[in-house]
UniProtKB/TrEMBL annotation:
Keywords noted in UniProt: Cytoplasm, Glycosyltransferase, Magnesium, Metal-binding, Nucleotide-binding, Purine salvage, Transferase
Family listed: Belongs to the purine/pyrimidine phosphoribosyltransferase family.
Designated name of the protein: Hypoxanthine phosphoribosyltransferase
EC number(s) stated in the UniProt entry for this protein: 2.4.2.8
GO biological process: GMP salvage; guanine salvage; hypoxanthine metabolic process; IMP salvage; purine ribonucleoside salvage
Source organism of this protein record: Stephania cephalantha
Cofactor section: Mg(2+)
Enzyme class: transferase
Subcellular location: Cytoplasm
Length: 188
């Protein structure tokens, strides 16, 4: 199909499974944020987090502020270069705010450790992380949350090259509504 479905070897999480998990995560986060003195700032990491962020905040049951950061590290390849740089910063002042960093996937941990340090230096009161996927087999950097920040993870991801639901290969496949394994012949 034109969307790229023919390049997928196996679907790991369907649209419906993702939707159910996102709803459960949003419910948990809403409970944890209830009673906060000011609206929490949900910061999506562009571009990969756009779909998860949109589905997540629709189900958060407290007022929220939505913002984006952009971090460059992968380029068009499949490996992190280990030195992420922030190329687009949040537009909101996060000083004294509860921040929830929203990611599609945590791989080496380089992107998040860079962003957590950055938000802490801007005076965030807490920094939580909410990621759809976590690939612990690939972790190189362990990040620490800030203040009362919590870690929310949708699914533990096996060590395959996955695309869809925001995740890309060479900027493609982000619009697939599910997460699947890319056929190796596509990137070899
Ligand atoms: C991917 C993914 C995470 C990051 C995780 O983004 O969306 O942001 O890599 O990898 P790490 O834990 O090794 O840092 P990418 O840099 O490919 O940009 P994109 O979101 O625009 O695809
Ligand atoms: Mn990303
Ligand atoms: Mg990418």
């Amino acid at each position: 199909a034109l969307r790229g479905d023919d390049d997928i070897e196996e679907i790991l999480w369907t649209e419906e499974q993702i939707s159910r998990r996102v709803a459960a995560m949003a419910s948990q986060i809403s409970d944890d944020l209830n009673g906060a003195s000011s609206p929490p700032v949900f910061v999506g990491v562009a571009t990969g987090a756009f779909m998860f962020l949109a589905d997540l905040v629709k189900r958060i049951e407290v007022p929220v502020v939505v913002d984006f950061v952009r971090v460059e590290s992968y380029g068009s390849g499949t490996e992190s270069n280990g030195a992420p740089t922030i190329s687009w910063d949040v537009k909101n002042d996060v000083k004294g705010k509860h921040v929830v960093l929203v990611e599609d996937i945590v791989d080496t941990g380089n992107t998040l450790s860079c962003l957590i340090a950055h938000l802490q230096s801007k005076g965030a009161r807490s920094v939580s992380v909410c990621t759809l996927l976590d690939k612990p087999a690939r972790r190189k950097v362990n990040f620490e949350l800030v203040g009362e920040g919590k870690y929310y993870c949708g699914f533990e991801c096996p060590d395959y090259f996955v695309v869809g639901y925001g995740l890309d290969y060479a900027e493609l496949y982000r619009n697939l509504p599910y997460v699947g394994v890319l056929k190796p012949e596509i990137y070899k």
